[in-house]
Amino acid sequence: MFRRRDGALEVLLAHPGGPFWARKDDGAWALPKGEYDDQEEALAAAQREFTEETGFTAQGPFISLGEVRQRSGKRVKAWAFEGDCDPAQLRSNEFEMEWPPHSGRMKSFPEIDKLAWYGAREARLKLLPSQLPFLERLEQGLAAGSGG
């Protein structure tokens, strides 16, 4: 999701939940995303995952931002859409994992523990490095669409 405030681009970024990300900030934020299988169309999966992870609805028109490969090898396809929301209203689904490690106890964590709006400059610092191309493609697409 992106918006324009006083003529400047802002993007909605998600901070991953769980203990591994709790103390990480710069270079740890991402686009809300999830997995899908061959039975589901990629854009439909992206819309579903956005809602599951944020509690907000993704509504087009959508701008394809292509695909990137993260350091883990995971391939991520992304789309952008213009919208607005209050990050304080975040409602994320949860996942379970053994925590603390080797304790035999399962604990639930939100997939996303924070959402925030960032201007393009700050978003470059916050985003996972592998997802920076998505921001660059969004900026290029919006500039081309506005004639500049």
Q: In order across it, which strands form the biggest sheet?
A: 1-2-7
Structural class: alpha+beta
What would you call the shape? globular
Averaging pLDDT over every residue, what do you get? 93
- Give the number of DSSP strands: 7
User: In percent, how helical is the residue content?
Assistant: 10-25%
H and E string: EEHEEEEEHH
What is the percentage of strand-forming residues?
25-35%
Cα end-to-end separation: 21 Å
- Unreliable stretches: none
Question: Which sheet architecture does the biggest sheet show?
Answer: 3 strands, antiparallel
**Rg (CA only):** 16 Å
Put simply, the count of helices is 3
What does this entry look like structurally?
- A three-stranded antiparallel β-sheet has the order 1-2-7. A two-stranded antiparallel sheet has the order 3-4.
- It has helices at residues 42-54, 120-126, 132-145, and strands spanning 2-5, 8-16, 63-69, 75-80, 94-98, 106-110, 112-119.
- The longest helix is centred in the C-terminal third of the chain and has 14 residues, at 132-145.
- 23% of the residues lie in helices and 30% in strands.
- The model has no long low-confidence stretch (mean pLDDT 93).
- The chain starts with a strand and ends with a helix.
- The protein has 148 residues and is of the alpha+beta class.
- It is built from three helices and seven strands; from the N terminus they run E-E-H-E-E-E-E-E-H-H.
- It is globular and about 55 Å long.
Keywords, separated by commas or semicolons:
single chain, 148 residues, alpha+beta, three-stranded antiparallel β-sheet, two-stranded antiparallel sheet, 3 helices, 7 strands, 23% helix, 30% strand
